[in-house]
């Protein structure tokens, strides 16, 4: 068992338990004595020591060491003495033999498998601590004799509190659900589900969803091969992603005993504009389900709403429009959307200024011209958005669906017949779209380092003790958070046009979520990066002293390359690109006076730089790098190609030694490399390294977690906080 916190982020903490499998030996230089220099432990938890294993990847591969073993090296601790004339230090491995641990020692830890030795006299609180160390019930084992503890005293504080809560109902339940009734009433559930293929089981077992007549889901991210059937329902409309999963797609379920008619459906996915809708008639109601991307302009949304509502009104007078419109109704300037819907006789059916997302925005809502319709939000454990339930008070006529009957679907119409408010709003739209294909790394792609070791190996003990634990990927979590970041930035850009500062609270809240996610990510090296990130071959002038410590990635060049690079460095992939933009925007807002001074000295407009930082596919420069250094609390070093012309003052020989290269950087004669230091207190921290070609940024990934630091002399901003 470890007895110190050597790396809390990597799980190497006091109390971490495992099995000693192997010991490395080396010789002391002074005495030539052979002593243990490193031990290898197989920890009970697979995630423990993951970063340490990644840093020793090359050593383990060359020596054919089991990839599940974690290297542990001796630590030095100073012993406190009363004397000031000398100090005493002890160097030893931070471990002790451990057959078991006390319940008190286990507090704060969680384990896949736990055996609790029950004995007489154990209190309720001790039993709770012991049993709650297991992460799941199937991993909890009880041995010994269980003697039930005494019941709590009548005057016990916790008991009295529960009694009071049961009698006085101190907690007010704020969620609204579909009302239960024996009568058959027509009801709808609408939800931006975000990754339906991952959450289909949640929908299948949610009684609120199953009690509804219609389930309408958007942003499904589904593929045609996904099995999305729900018992008791038929699928009446489905749109899937092609090839790559994206924030796209729609599916509508209807109870098997209800008759329906597809009126129209359409999507537009061209450039930044992305909108999807469908209109389905059930009984005497047309239900229009909408998803509108935060990137779409209001004119595009208005044109499509005019189109679908006008067509639907040809078939029935009763209209319900429900969707994720990505227009925050809490902002007064967005009341123009409510007024626009009123022009069709449709009123907002939800309470205004009520949260529909976890970011406390109201972007999901329902409009209708019916007086006997009620709707509200309830909670979701799987999505950023809250579901909307809609219920018609009047009893719905029950229809039995005849499978042989021809149903009118996708009725053709002449777009010239649709009434538009303004002819300038009409535009030609290519209804075809193509999803980007994500490149994957070659399975054979490897980077080798020449390292030699003189160590003796010990045999591995009983392999039956090895526990296989499924590794969970954070990829989907990254995608959802980055999608939310993009939506928040787009809302912020809308507010920025009107000099409205209301969107800064959302940005600040999202920044905290991103920071927490990044903090949980392991240190990224060449060896544990995502497979989607490729390493560039050495085709340019190579300086071996530098290339031995850093490898240059092949970063996507889409105007986001700076943020793509920082995302790769922090989490190993480009999946937090928009989140990096949001962190930079948050830093500029929180330090606005500082950045206004910088912009004034560089002859920039602060507002334009803030807008550039928030806008998708807009390149970043010195202001944005400085903001990222503040946001990430680390220096950022930007390197350029080393000069290969011996006639130039800053020429660097390809075979220069590491120390000579460090000296050249210290003297400022290594080339036009730049450093950005957001906070003075972060000056000595390990840096985030990028490569700049003049038009494009790439990430520079280290081969280990403690690479040499080649610190550029020039600081173009030189205004650290």
What does this protein look like?
The protein has 721 residues and is an alpha+beta fold. It folds into 4 domains: 8-99, no CATH class; 107-173, no CATH class; 188-399, Endonuclease/exonuclease/phosphatase (Deoxyribonuclease I, Chain A); 476-702, Cathepsin B, Chain A (Alpha-Beta Complex). Helices cover 25% and strands 20% of the residues. Strands 10-11-9-8-19-18 form a 6-stranded mixed sheet. A 6-stranded mixed sheet has the order 12-13-14-15-17-16, covered by helices on one side. Strand 4 (75-79) and strand 5 form a beta hairpin. Helix 10 packs antiparallel against helix 11 and helix 13 (561-571) packs across helix 14 (577-590). The two termini are 42 Å apart. Mean pLDDT is 83; it is low at 397-473.
Helix count, DSSP H or I runs of 4 or more residues: 18
Per DSSP, what share of the residues sits in E-state strands of 2 or more residues?
15-25%
Query: Any idea what the radius of gyration is?
Result: 31 Å
Unreliable spans: 397-473
Physical arrangement of strands within the biggest beta sheet: 10-11-9-8-19-18
How can the largest sheet be summarized? 6 strands, mixed
SS elements, strand count:
24
Report the mean per-residue pLDDT as an integer: 83
CATH architecture of the largest domain: Alpha-Beta Complex
What is the CATH topology of the largest domain?
A: Cathepsin B, Chain A
Helical coverage, percent range: 10-25%
Protein name: OTU domain-containing protein
Organism: Rotaria sordida
GO molecular function: catalytic activity
Pfam families: Exo_endo_phos_2 (PF14529), OTU (PF02338)
């Amino acid at each position: 068992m470890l007895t110190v916190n050597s790396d809390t982020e990597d799980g190497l903490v006091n109390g971490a338990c495992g099995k000693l499998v192997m010991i490395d030996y080396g010789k002391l230089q002074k005495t030539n004595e052979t002593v243990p220099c490193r031990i290898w432990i197989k920890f009970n938890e697979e995630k423990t020591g993951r970063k340490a294993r990644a840093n020793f990847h090359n050593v383990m591969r060359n020596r054919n060491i089991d990839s599940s073993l974690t290297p542990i090296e001796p630590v030095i601790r100073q012993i406190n003495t009363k004397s000031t004339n000398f100090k005493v230090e002890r160097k030893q491995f931070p471990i002790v033999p451990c057959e078991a641990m006390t319940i008190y020692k286990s507090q704060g830890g969680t384990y896949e498998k736990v055996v609790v030795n029950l004995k007489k006299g154990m209190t309720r609180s001790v039993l709770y601590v012991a049993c709650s160390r297991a992460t799941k019930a199937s991993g909890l084992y009880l041995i010994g004799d269980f003697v039930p503890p005494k019941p709590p005293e009548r005057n016990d504080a916790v008991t009295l509190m529960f009694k009071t809560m049961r009698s006085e109902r101190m907690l007010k339940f704020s969620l609204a659900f579909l009302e239960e009734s024996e009568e058959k009433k027509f009801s709808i559930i609408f939800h931006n589900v975000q990754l339906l293929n991952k959450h289909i089981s949640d929908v299948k077992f949610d009684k609120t969803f199953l009690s509804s007549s219609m389930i309408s889901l958007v942003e499904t991210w589904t593929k045609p091969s996904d099995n999305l059937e729900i018992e008791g329902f038929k699928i009446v409309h489905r749109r899937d992603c092609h090839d790559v999963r994206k924030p796209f797609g729609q599916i509508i379920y209807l109870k098997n005993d209800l008759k329906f008619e597809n009126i129209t459906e359409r999507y537009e996915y061209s450039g930044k504009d992305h909108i999807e809708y469908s209109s389905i008639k059930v009984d005497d109601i047309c239900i229009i389900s909408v998803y509108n991307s935060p990137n779409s302009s209001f004119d595009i949304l208005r044109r499509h709403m005019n189109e679908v509502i006008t067509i639907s009104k040809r078939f029935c007078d009763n209209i319900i429009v429900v969707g994720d419109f990505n227009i925050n109704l809490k902002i007064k300037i967005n009341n123009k959307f409510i007024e626009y819907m009123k022009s069709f006789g449709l009123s907002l059916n939800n309470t205004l200024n009520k949260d529909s997302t976890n970011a406390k925005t109201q972007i999901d809502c329902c409009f209708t011209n019916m007086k006997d319709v009620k709707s509200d939000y309830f909670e979701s454990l799987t999505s950023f958005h809250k579901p909307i339930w809609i219920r018609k008070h009047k009893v719905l006529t029950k229809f039995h669906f005849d499978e042989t009957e021809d149903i009118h679907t996708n009725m053709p119409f002449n777009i010239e017949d649709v009434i538009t408010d303004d002819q300038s709003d009409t535009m030609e739209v290519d209804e075809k779209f193509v999803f980007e294909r994500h490149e994957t790394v070659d399975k054979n792609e490897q980077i080798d380092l020449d390292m030699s070791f003189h160590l003796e190996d010990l045999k591995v003990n009983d392999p039956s003790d090895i526990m296989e634990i499924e590794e969970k990927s954070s990829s989907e979590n990254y995608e959802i958070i980055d999608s939310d970041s993009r939506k928040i930035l787009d809302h912020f850009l809308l507010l920025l046009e009107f000099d409205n500062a209301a969107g800064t609270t959302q940005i600040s809240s999202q920044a905290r979520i991103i920071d927490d996610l990044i903090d949980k990510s392991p240190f990224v090296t060449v060896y544990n990066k995502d497979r989607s990130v490729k390493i560039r071959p050495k085709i340019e002038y190579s300086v071996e002293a530098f290339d031995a410590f850093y490898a240059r990635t092949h970063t996507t060049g889409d105007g986001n390359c700076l943020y793509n690079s920082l995302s790769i460095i922090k989490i190993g992939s480009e999946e937090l690109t928009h989140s990096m933009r949001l962190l930079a925007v948050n830093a500029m807002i929180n330090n606005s006076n500082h950045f206004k001074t910088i912009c004034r000295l560089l002859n920039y407009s602060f507002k334009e730089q803030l807008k550039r930082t928030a806008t998708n596919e807009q390149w970043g420069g010195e202001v944005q790098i400085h903001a990222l250094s503040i946001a990430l609390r680390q220096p950022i070093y930007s390197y350029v190609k080393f000069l290969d012309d011996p006639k130039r003052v800053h020429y660097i020989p390809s075979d220069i030694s590491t120390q000579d290269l460090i000296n050249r950087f210290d003297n400022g004669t290594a080339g036009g490399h730049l450093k950005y230091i957001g906070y003075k207190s972060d000056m000595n921290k390990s840096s985030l390294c990028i490569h700049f070609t003049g038009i494009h940024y790439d990430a520079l990934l280290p081969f280990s977690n403690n690479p040499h630091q080649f610190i550029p002399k020039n600081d173009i901003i030189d205004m650290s906080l």
